[in-house]
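Hi support team,

I've been running sequence recovery on a batch of backbones for a student project. Most finish fine, but this one hangs at about 90% for roughly twenty minutes before it completes. I'm not sure whether the input is malformed or the queue is just slow. I've pasted the structure tokens below so you can try to reproduce it. Let me know if you need the job ID as well.

Thanks,
M.K.
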């Protein structure tokens, strides 16, 4: 089946999650944020990813409401993700943080709620809170972010409901091979943040060569690689032309040789913190 911009992957609980979405990492509230979300939805995006720590949930919610009205869409047609921040982890704390996020977003139900980072000694209690929110029908899917294999193993040992998503840094220099294999084995959907390595990969010679052979940009090649690896991806942009370009990846396919050449670029190199050594 050929994918398109609104194609979805079925999570372990049957919820359909778009393969492609817009990330709004630390985009300040205001015209840029509103314009980016409206442009994305106008051009066919159906997934918006934010987090409490980004400080923009209210602006995201307002832009979503306006965009849905402008485009004649129902709320159910959009998949909205947010995350609980580290200082808000713990059982009661997480329940309160969720209420705050939902209120700021102006939503009755969230589509996906994630533990933002694996805070030692807290993430299991935080997960119990997410399980409650899920059972209460206040969120359609729950998951984690920045969890290594050992974090997932530790959580799965006691979890009543297994995470449906693990959102991590993922790009050709950080291919996360062990984690990708583990999540596939356990029915957990891997999702990429910073798929373009904050622009660092755009001048990479191998990627430039592959891009030229397809008449595509390096960014489009990387995002296509994500999809062909079975990884949901949410590139961030506030420029309408880039939002359109990033999503123009459904009219070509990388060959097996292309994929192998990109896979070979892996250096296990991060642009963000290592979850095992993050100063919480």
């Amino acid at each position: 089946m050929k994918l398109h911009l609104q194609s979805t992957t079925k999570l372990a609980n049957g919820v359909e999650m778009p393969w492609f979405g817009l990330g709004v990492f630390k985009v300040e509230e205001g015209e840029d944020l509103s314009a980016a979300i409206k442009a994305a939805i106008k051009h066919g995006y159906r997934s918006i990813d934010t987090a409490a720590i980004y400080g923009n949930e209210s602006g995201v919610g307002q832009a979503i409401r306006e965009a849905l009205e402008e485009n004649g869409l129902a709320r159910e047609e959009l998949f909205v993700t947010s995350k609980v921040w580290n200082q808000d982890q713990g059982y009661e704390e997480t329940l309160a943080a969720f209420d705050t996020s939902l209120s700021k977003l102006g939503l009755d139900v969230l589509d996906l709620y994630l533990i933002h980072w694996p805070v030692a000694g807290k993430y299991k209690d935080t997960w119990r809170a997410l399980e409650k929110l899920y059972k209460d029908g206040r969120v359609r899917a729950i998951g984690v972010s920045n969890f290594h294999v050992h974090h997932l193993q530790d959580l799965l040992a006691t979890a009543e409901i297994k995470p449906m998503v693990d959102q991590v840094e993922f790009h050709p220099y950080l291919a996360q091979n062990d984690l990708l294999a583990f999540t596939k084995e356990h029915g957990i959907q891997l999702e990429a943040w910073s798929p373009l390595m904050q622009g660092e990969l755009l001048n990479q010679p191998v990627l430039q060569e592959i891009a030229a052979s397809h008449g595509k940009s390096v960014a489009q090649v990387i995002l296509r690689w994500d999809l062909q690896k079975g990884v949901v991806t949410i590139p961030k942009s506030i420029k309408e032309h880039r939002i359109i370009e990033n999503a123009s990846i459904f009219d070509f396919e990388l060959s097996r040789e292309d994929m192998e050449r990109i896979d070979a670029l892996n250096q296990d190199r991060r642009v963000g913190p290592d979850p095992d050594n993050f100063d919480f």
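--
Follow-up from support: It reproduced on our side and the slowdown came from queue contention, not your input. The CA atoms of residues 22 and 234 lie 5 Å apart. No action needed from you.
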